[in-house]
Amino acid sequence: MERLVKVGALDPALEMLTSDEIRFLLSDWPTFAHDHQLPPSTDWRIWLLMGGRGAGKTRAGAEWVRTLALYGGRPHMGYLESFDGRIALVGETYADVREVMIEGVSGVLAVHDKSERPVWHSSRRRLEWPNGAIAQCFSSEDPEALRGPQFEFAWCDELAKWRYAEETFDMLQFGMRLGHKPRQLVTTTPRPVPLLKRLLTQEGTEVSRAPTAVNAPYLAPDFLESVVGRYAGTRLGRQELEGELLEDRPDALWSRETLELQRLEEAPRELQRIVVAVDPPASSGRRSDACGIVAAGIDFDGQAYVLADHTMDRVRPKGWASAATSLWHTLQADCLVVEVNQGGEMVASVLASVDPTVPVKSVHASRGKYARAEPVAMLYDQGRVHHVGAYPDLEDEMTDFGPAGLSNGRSPDRLDALVWALSDLMLGKRGEPRLRQL
Q1: pLDDT, average across residues 320-342
Q2: 3-class DSSP string for 317-343
Q3: Helix crossing, 344-354 with 317-331: angle to 10°?
Q4: Which of 9, 111, 360, 365 sits between 20 and 30 A of 412, alpha carbons compared?
Q5: Which domains does the chain carry?
Q6: Is the pLDDT reported for residue 342 higher than 80?
Q7: Helix (H, G, I), strand (E, B) or coil at 288
Q8: pTM for this model (two decimals)
Q9: What does the pLDDT average to over 95-119?
Q10: Which run of H or E residues covers position 397?
Q11: How many CB atoms lie within 10 A of CB 209?
Q12: Beta carbons of 271 and 298 less than 8 angstroms apart
C-alpha cells in the first residue's frame, strides 16, 4: 500500500483512482514501457534487444515472459494468439538465470502480482504458473542440457557473455519446435562476438537498441553522474552505456585496445609545444567534406597528448577558420598547422581575415594518406601518444582506416588533422621549446 500512496502523490489525477485501479496500472506494462521494451510489430523470429547497462533489458524480458505465460499472447503487442506453455530461460550461468532473470529486482517474479506469481522450484530449475505454463532454466556453461526439451518461446539474456555461445544457441534452436512460429528474445549488452554479429544479419531478426540514458529516471543520480560521466565516449562506455557494437577493422592502423590503454583523464600542466592542425575541405556546401580540426601537445619527455577534436561538418571557410583560431587562443597554442594542398592562398587569406595575429604553418601533402598515417600509428604502438579524454568520432575513423581508406569511402578528415598535428610535434623539426600552462 505504501507504494500506491507514493504513486498517487505524484499526480493529482492519480489520487482520484482507487487502489485497485492504481494496482492495475502498475501491472499494465505497455502503459509504462519504453518503445524499445515492447516487441516489434513485424513478423520476427528473433527479437534482439541491445542496450546499455540499466536500459531496461531485463525488465523487457521478464514482462515478455509474464505476458506469454499469463495471457498466451496479445497479437497487437507482437505475441502469438496461441501458446503451448513452454518457455526456455537461458543465461550465462545458472546463478545468473536465478539471480537476474528470475529473482532479480526486474526479474520474472518481481513483475508479477502476488495473485498471479509463478512458483519457483529452484531445485528443478523451473517456474510453474497456476495455468500450467512452464519456464525451464538453462546455462551457457551446459549446452547439452538443452538436448531433449522443446519450447515455443525462449528468452536469452546477455548472450554476448555466454561461455559456449555457439554450442548453447545451436542446441536451443533444435528445441524450438513447438507452436505455430517459435520466437526468441535476446537481451544483451553488445560485444563483437561472432554469434551476435551473425544474428544481426540473419533473416527474421528485428533489432531494438537503447542507451542507458533512456532509462535515466529509474537510475540512481550518482550512477549517472559518476559512472556515465567518467566513461562517456570511451570504448567501454560506448559498449556498456550506449549499447554500441564496436569492432576493429583487421587491417586498420589503430586498434581500440591500444587507444584505451593509453587514454588519460588529463594532460600534464606543462607542455613543451601545442599545435592546432586543420585539414580544410576542398569546397563548402551541403556535399563538402568535414573540416578536420585537432589539437595536440607534447611534453619534455617526448610524450604527446591529443587535447581536442573540434572538427566541423559542412561549414563555410570563415566558420572553420573562426573555430580553429578560437581553439588556438583557448589552448594558448604555438601555431596553426594547415594543409594547403587545395586552395593554399585562399586558406591563408581566410585565416588572416579572421585573426591575422595567429601564426600559420602551411604543410603540403606529398604522399598518400596511408603513407602519412603509418609513422604516426607507430608512435601509438610505442606508447608515446595519449588521448586526453574520449573522442568517439575521431577514434572511429582511426580504427576503421586501412590501406584503402575508410570502409564507408569518405574522407578521413579528423584523422588527417590528427596526423598533421602529431607529425609536426613528433616527426618534423621542432621549434624552440616553449612552456605552456593548461
Answers
A1: 91
A2: HHHHHHHHHHHHHHHCCCEEEEECCCC
A3: 60
A4: 360
A5: 33-218 (3.40.50.300), 256-437 (3.30.420.240)
A6: no
A7: coil
A8: 0.59
A9: 93
A10: helix 392-398
A11: 17
A12: yes
